[in-house]
Amino acid sequence: MFGPAARTPREIAPGAVHLPGWLTPEQQRSLVEACRRWAVGPVPIRHTRLPRGGVMSVRTVCLGWHWSPYRYTRTAVDAGGGRVAEFPGWMADLGRRALVDAYRDPAAGDGYTPDTALINFYDEQATLGMHQDRDERSDAPVVSLSIGDSCVFRFGNTEHRNRPWTDVELASGDLFVFGGPSRFAYHGVPRVLPGTADPATGLSRGRLNITIRVTGLDDAPGAE
Ligand SMILES: O=C(O)CCC(=O)C(=O)O
């Protein structure tokens, strides 16, 4: 749904805001096209292997920095060794605009310089367990964009992965921002809602989620 009523930010917790219908259909289509290109390479999209032997059900491709449990590197140390695609300047602009709109503050994007994005693709069975985004050396907000099938997004507390939490339905085009006191809240995706995607986005099945982040990292000589 698009229109003024759909664009009212809803604060889920202090610093955590859901803004439905933020991306236009055209923006969603062009993000889907860009993600399809990034999924092919230079580092192909993959199921991330976890240190204890598990494999994540989502498939992930990264921009700017490559995330593997539990660090960022410039090269895909667990996926062929290639250097990840550049984090595009237009995506940094999108991240700044997201903060302005979510926090309803024209200055909210000032000084926000994201340098990575994790792009997750969920098929109809994929889920993401409760976790904190804490491999960044920065407490700058995380900007999350959703396209395709809706999902149940579980937004919890900063102490542990259990209740209290709030379940939010994220639909195609929705923005979710978490920063400030909610930056290190546990969150996850217990369920994708199959059959809810609008094929007009170019994604007729499954769900795409893009999180735009500030790593707070610098390239050091000899960095991977
Ligand atoms: O798919 C989502 O909405 C959340 C993604 C997420 O939690 C993450 O990438 O850390």
UniProtKB/TrEMBL annotation:
<dbReference type="InterPro" id="IPR005123">
    <property type="entry name" value="Oxoglu/Fe-dep_dioxygenase_dom"/>
</dbReference>
<dbReference type="GO" id="GO:0035515">
    <property type="term" value="F:oxidative RNA demethylase activity"/>
</dbReference>
<feature type="binding site">
    <location>
        <position position="133"/>
    </location>
    <ligand>
        <name>Fe cation</name>
    </ligand>
</feature>
<feature type="binding site">
    <location>
        <position position="131"/>
    </location>
    <ligand>
        <name>Fe cation</name>
    </ligand>
</feature>
<protein>
    <submittedName>
        <fullName>Alpha-ketoglutarate-dependent dioxygenase AlkB</fullName>
    </submittedName>
</protein>
<dbReference type="Pfam" id="PF13532">
    <property type="entry name" value="2OG-FeII_Oxy_2"/>
</dbReference>
<keyword id="KW-0479">Metal-binding</keyword>
<keyword id="KW-0560">Oxidoreductase</keyword>
<dbReference type="GO" id="GO:0035516">
    <property type="term" value="F:broad specificity oxidative DNA demethylase activity"/>
</dbReference>
<dbReference type="InterPro" id="IPR037151">
    <property type="entry name" value="AlkB-like_sf"/>
</dbReference>
<dbReference type="GO" id="GO:0005737">
    <property type="term" value="C:cytoplasm"/>
</dbReference>
<feature type="domain" description="Fe2OG dioxygenase">
    <location>
        <begin position="113"/>
        <end position="216"/>
    </location>
</feature>
<keyword id="KW-0408">Iron</keyword>
<dbReference type="GO" id="GO:0035513">
    <property type="term" value="P:oxidative RNA demethylation"/>
</dbReference>
<keyword id="KW-0223">Dioxygenase</keyword>
<dbReference type="InterPro" id="IPR027450">
    <property type="entry name" value="AlkB-like"/>
</dbReference>
<dbReference type="GO" id="GO:0008198">
    <property type="term" value="F:ferrous iron binding"/>
</dbReference>
<dbReference type="InterPro" id="IPR004574">
    <property type="entry name" value="Alkb"/>
</dbReference>
<feature type="binding site">
    <location>
        <position position="187"/>
    </location>
    <ligand>
        <name>Fe cation</name>
    </ligand>
</feature>
